[in-house]
């Protein structure tokens, strides 16, 4: 139970970081950020491997890079042109 909560928190942080770096909002608010972070961790680790520090079983750097890709693609397809306000 505690591990699942930790995975959700780390997924949300990764999703938010990906959204900030890309400069676009992930559709769906916090739920979208959690999904984007978890999906980004999966995409990043599959494309880039499992290098660097890990948190909750996710490699941090590949996860952030994967989240950036996921946020960018999803915001283009679903979110239109909503950009994060400075």
From TrEMBL:
Q: Which residues cross the membrane?
A: 6-23, 30-48, 60-80
Topology in the lipid bilayer: Multi-pass membrane protein
Q: Which organism is it from?
A: Lacticaseibacillus pabuli
Subcellular location field: Cell membrane
Name of the featured protein? GlsB/YeaQ/YmgE family stress response membrane protein
Q: Which UniProt keywords apply?
A: Cell membrane, Membrane, Transmembrane, Transmembrane helix
UniProt family annotation = Belongs to the UPF0410 family.
Main location (coarse class): membrane
Q: Which Pfam families match?
A: Transgly_assoc
Q: Which InterPro entries match?
A: Transgly_assoc
